[in-house]
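3.2 Worked example (two chains)
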Amino acid sequence: MTRSYRGWLILLMCLATMSGCAAPLNRAAVEPGLIMDDPEIDPAELLDQLVKAHNAERTEAELSSIALDKKLCAAAQRQAEDMAAQNKMDHQGSDGSNLPDRVKDAGYSYKRCGENIAWGQKSVEQVVEVWMKSPPHKKNILGEFTQMGAARAFSKDGTPYWCVVFATPLRK
């Protein structure tokens, strides 16, 4: 088993047991050689750090906390992996999908959704700082959302690609 697939399996096991936010394994979507893990940080810890960082910004703005959702994590993981495989930061997937497509494909029904993407930042602190300095990204972090999903994937050259999906579920 290659490092990328072994790392991906470890990621899924950690996420499933610690956060309940794992996407189904789809090896066809993982390009051979794509690095999915980082030995420096546990994947579940990374998700926890992302949620805490977003909630710290929301608390400072006197907004309610945002909760992690496993379906939104699946949508975020799909986009982070796709961007890393393509070495391209884009809200449109290489398959032509957009954010609403990916959220619906993950089985999430929403009233509103938003997405923040980034590449190159080495830590949660760095990526959230970049987003908070960008008015459209800051608007998502401080937006009228109640749930989020997050992911990070690495390209072949080790560049991190980040994706956070925000949403408010549709209540029936």
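3.2.1 Second chain
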Amino acid sequence: MNTKELRQAFLDFYKSKDHAVVDSSSLIPANDDTLLFTNAGMVQFKDVFLGTEKKKYVKATSSQRCIRAGGKHNDLENVGYTLRHHTFFEMLGNFSFGDYFKHDAIAFAWEFLTDVLKLPEDKLWISVYKDDDEAAAIWRDEIGINPDRIVRLGEEDNFWSMGDTGPCGPCSEIYYDHGDHIPGTPPGSDGDEGDRYVEIWNLVFMQFNRDSSGELIYQNPLLILVWD
């Protein structure tokens, strides 16, 4: 499967789950002086997550063009040192504005990876934020992941922010194990910078807004007002 086919398969899958397919926005964020460049797919939906903008849809999917050239969580220090970090790339994403949260986000991702892409289930590892018992339970009890392949990581790895301020929240990442012929150890352990275990998906549970003082303000992700 080439890049074009993978992109279309992703968008078609989420369209089948009643997500509106939204075009990529500009690389220069509109009306947002907190970012120099669009660095993630959720940037064009920032005001929706903050409850200051309304859309006629409650679920969206996109393939967003991104530039990462510095700043929080932009991985610039890894560009040129690994095969999977870039300054310009497309980010596939699915977004819910008050419609679904952790359960469906996790179930959709798992269905796409295992049913559509046919990835072997035993090759997939999961990380969750250290205090996120709910996400860990969903992966373990509902999806059926072996607890030995679920790891808990701290804020640096499993709490995502678009920048110093704005929407943010704990996240759960999915890794693919390339096999023991590739150097590397499971996520969160010494040696995990190797290429054996590669992150292929990051599920961000956007439930906070970080203000200019650094305070986290809780926003119920299932109560976002989006109707006209």
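3.3 Remarks
The longest helix spans residues 102-116.
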